[in-house]
Predict the 3D structure of the following.
Amino acid sequence: MIEHIVAHSIQVCRVAILLQENLETSGIMLNRELVQASALLHDITKTRSIETGEFHSQTGADLLAGMGYSEVGDIVRQHVRLDNYSKTNGIKEAAIVNYADKRVLHDRIVPLETRMTYIMEKYGKRPDLLGRLNRLWKQTLDLEKRIFHPLPFGPDSVGLRIAPAACDSEMRDYFRVTDHREDTK
């Protein structure tokens, strides 16, 4: 992965874990390891998609499912658009990763409006796409309200609550490629 996509993914993970931990304190139990792995790997095929034009959410899901990580892959597939935005669906791991991704522009935590404006400008060139992105924006605003309803803080303070993580090196290990060939000396 390109370094700036790694930095983006680590920041998305920080936001997702902050939300997961605070939702747990509020009585909403989510699988932390699933949230962490999915957030870190949500853009696993983004670098490749820049050249191929493929839908990185789907190719990332396919790659992970092929490696035996279908549950992570399913969340990766939904990081752009959730399968279900229904209020009766509850808050699930996929919703946390989806929302966290919408709060990180490159490697900065930004207000939802800033990120959605960026997405609209970058991807909303055609009228049909602009219409879909407008619906996505409304759904994400509603999702934000549902996520923060049980929390003791609002969306504006997310960036203030995240300090550089002591586990950055652990997070970066997700992106390391190890050469397992034997030493030829």
